[in-house]
């Protein structure tokens, strides 16, 4: 079963860089990875509504100061979604705020690397598998 991630970033160049980072992480992952992209909050909302998605990798550039409100809204619509927020190093004070709106993790965008991303995706994928097994036992 593939792990599906939506990459959401407002700037084309950075989205392309993140896509390359995801491709490097893909080589390290023990599970298949499917990736979709969005360039705006509305685009992310549309893609999340139209396709099953396991995780959202959202860059601060998606909506600037409104990014965390957007994350809160997307999680309200898709409560099982796992969210990773990339913040500029100069905005590190928003890490706790990202956690409080429901993000799984927050990392300065200048420090993200394939190994970190691979580890996060692996942990989220395992959590998804365990939750599915627990849900089947409850039914």
Description of the structure:
The protein has helices at 12-26, 41-50, 67-77, 95-100, 114-138; strands spanning 3-8, 33-38, 55-59, 82-87, 105-108. The chain is of the alpha/beta class and 139 residues long. It has a 5-stranded parallel sheet, sandwiched between helices. Helix 1 packs across helix 5 (114-138).
Give keywords.
alpha/beta, 5-stranded parallel β-sheet, 5 strands
Taken in chain order, the helices and strands follow as EHEHEHEHEH
Number of helices: 5
Quote the distance from N terminus to C terminus. 21 Å
Number of strands: 5
Portion of residues in beta strands equals: 15-25%
pLDDT < 50 runs, ≥5 residues: none
Give the rounded overall mean pLDDT: 90
Over all CA atoms, what is the radius of gyration? Answer: 14 Å
Structural class: alpha/beta
What profile does the largest beta sheet have? 5 strands, parallel
Strands of the largest sheet, in order across it? Answer: 2-1-3-4-5
Oligomer: single chain
Instruction: Tell me the helix content.
Output: 40-55%
Estimate the global geometry from the Cα principal axes. globular
């Amino acid at each position: 079963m593939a792990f599906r991630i939506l990459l959401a970033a407002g700037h084309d160049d950075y989205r392309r860089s993140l896509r390359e980072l995801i491709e490097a992480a893909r080589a390290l992952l023990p599970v298949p990875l499917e990736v979709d992209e969005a360039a705006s909050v509305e685009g992310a909302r549309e893609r999340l509504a139209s396709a099953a998605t396991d995780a959202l990798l959202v860059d601060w550039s998606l909506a600037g100061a409104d990014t965390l409100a957007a994350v809160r809204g997307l999680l309200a619509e898709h409560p099982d979604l796992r969210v990773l927020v990339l913040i500029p190093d100069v905005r590190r004070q928003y890490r706790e705020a990202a956690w409080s709106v429901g993000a799984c993790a927050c990392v300065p965008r200048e420090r993200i690397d394939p190994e970190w991303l691979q580890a996060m995706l692996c942990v989220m994928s395992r959590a998804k598998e365990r939750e599915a097994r627990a849900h089947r036992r409850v039914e």
